[in-house]
Structures are given as C-alpha cells and as structure tokens.
Amino acid sequence: MARQDVPRNPWGDALKAAIDERRQAEEAFQWADTEYLDYHVYRLLAAEEKISLILRQARAAYGIGQPAAILPAATPDPTEPNGESFPTSVGDAHPPSD
Fold first, then answer.
1. Do 40 and 32 touch, CB atoms closer than 8 A?
2. Residue from 14, 3, 2, 11 nearest 61 by CA
C-alpha cells in the first residue's frame, strides 16, 4: 500500500501544533515579567482550551462519546436505624421540627 493510500488523521497535525503552542506559552510564562503575567496566563489557558477543542472534535468525528459522568452518591436509605429520616421525594422534604 502506498503512503498516499493510508487514511490520514486530520487532527494529528492540529493537535501537534496546539501542544507545541501550549509548550511555548508555558515557557514564555516562566520567563515573563510580572507586568505581563495576566497576558501569559490567558495565553496558556487559551492554548489548553485549543487542545481540548481539537480532542472534542476528534472524539465526535470518530463517534467516541464523552467520558462517563461521575454518578451521584447513593442517597441514604430512609429506613436506616440511625434515627434520621431522609426525604424520598420533593414533597417529603420539610424542615426538622424543634
């Protein structure tokens, strides 16, 4: 198979350039004069966001979903013997009586 027949990853070059841009921004930040720190922080954050954008586009193009969301913590069982009761629905929620 000839080299030109191999499908090319269109995000590879963009990702490499964005990573290099981030590296340059970090290096510039390390050597920046205090008067220009805000600019260099912004530049660094923009370079990181650019990397994230390229990765999101590549994932979407290849049908790879977002990472699994963190599941909410399990709610305590309202029948627990610790003496506390927890609302099981919005209608059950009332302030504790004193």
1. yes
2. 11
